[in-house]
Design brief:
single chain, mainly beta, Immunoglobulin-like, 2 domains, eight-stranded antiparallel sheet, 1 helix, 5% helix
């Protein structure tokens, strides 16, 4: 009997790692977004209210880009999680709304997740690892890592976290797999009960720096970059001879790919070791002003 008394608490603790619901009104997802033709922004997602469709109970999803978190817009997507830890999403504005499987947290190494966005597009991403991570509050969450073909012959590893979602965000990550798109989204921070529990950026950077002032981003820039898209070289030139003190190339998750300290009005970045994709180039001038532009790197 003593063996069972000792074993059961351990068993319950172990099972709790894999029993975290994605659905909840106490959660918020801060998601960064970059389009080729628009300035980078951050938006927030949350769930509120229930909707019953086909005898299935869904949560409504709201979004905001307001830094004060005061103006929320209802999205067309509805989300639910069933008893088997599968998460489903449906767009109720379409003529024939059907559920799409968004997550399956039962997957193990050797399984594949099939993506069927329409009748003409199907692909599978294989599971290569299952482990757990520790959140800021000390809780353990199950993590499932996949491999998928990101660009040409380039393979990328991506992951899901049970109770949180994908590293690309909550509801639109399917469109980033098995193909190349002209935009990027990534999960910057995840909050529960108003407390940050997970993030891919440092504390204090959950909102992208330009979210409160996107109207004139890039329109008054005194720097030009070319070619864009670029292959092996990227030139940065000041149109008014303003000196550049630092130039950084970062990916969507804020990771620094290139960091070049200079003191000149033009420079060239070597991209030979940079993987194809969409990046941000950050230019800091002699006055400490920051200019951010998007650049596409091709092979």
């Amino acid at each position: 009997m003593k063996k069972y008394i000792i074993f059961l608490p351990f068993l319950f603790c172990t099972l709790s790692v894999f029993a975290q619901s994605l659905i909840g009104e106490n959660k918020q997802w801060y998601i960064g977004e970059v389009f080729i033709t628009q300035p980078p922004v951050t938006f927030i997602l949350k769930m509120e209210g229930d909707t019953l469709i086909d005898n299935k109970l869904y949560k409504k999803i709201y979004t905001t880009r307001d830094t004060a978190n005061q103006e929320w817009t209802l999205l067309n997507e509805l989300i639910r999680e069933d008893s088997t830890k599968k998460v489903w999403i449906r767009n109720y504005s379409m003529d024939e709304p059907e559920e799409i499987l968004l997550y399956d947290f039962n997957l193990v190494v050797g399984d594949s997740f099939a993506i069927n966005l329409d009748s003409d597009f199907t692909c599978k991403i294989p599971v290569i690892n299952v482990d757990s991570i520790v959140l800021s509050n000390g809780a353990l969450r199950k993590r499932i890592t996949f491999s998928f073909q990101y660009f040409g012959d380039t393979f990328e590893e991506i992951y899901w976290i049970e109770g949180i979602g994908s590293q690309f965000g909550l509801i639109t990550h399917l469109y980033g797999y098995c193909g190349w798109v002209d935009y990027g989204r990534w999960l910057r921070c995840y909050f529960e009960d108003g407390q940050r529990q997970f993030g891919q950026v440092p504390d204090g950077e959950c909102f992208y720096e330009f979210i409160t002032n996107t109207d004139d981003l890039d329109t008054q820039s005194s720097f030009s970059i070319y070619p864009n898209p670029a292959t092996d070289k990227l030139r940065v030139i000041s149109s008014d001879n303003r000196l550049i003190t630092e130039c950084l190339l970062t990916d969507f998750q804020g990771r620094i790919i290139i960091d070049k300290l200079v003191n000149k009005s033009n420079l060239t970045l070597d991209l030979l070791n940079v993987m194809p994709g969409i990046y941000l180039i950050k230019i800091i001038d002699e006055g400490g002003r920051l200019t951010t532009k998007k650049v596409v790197v091709t092979d």
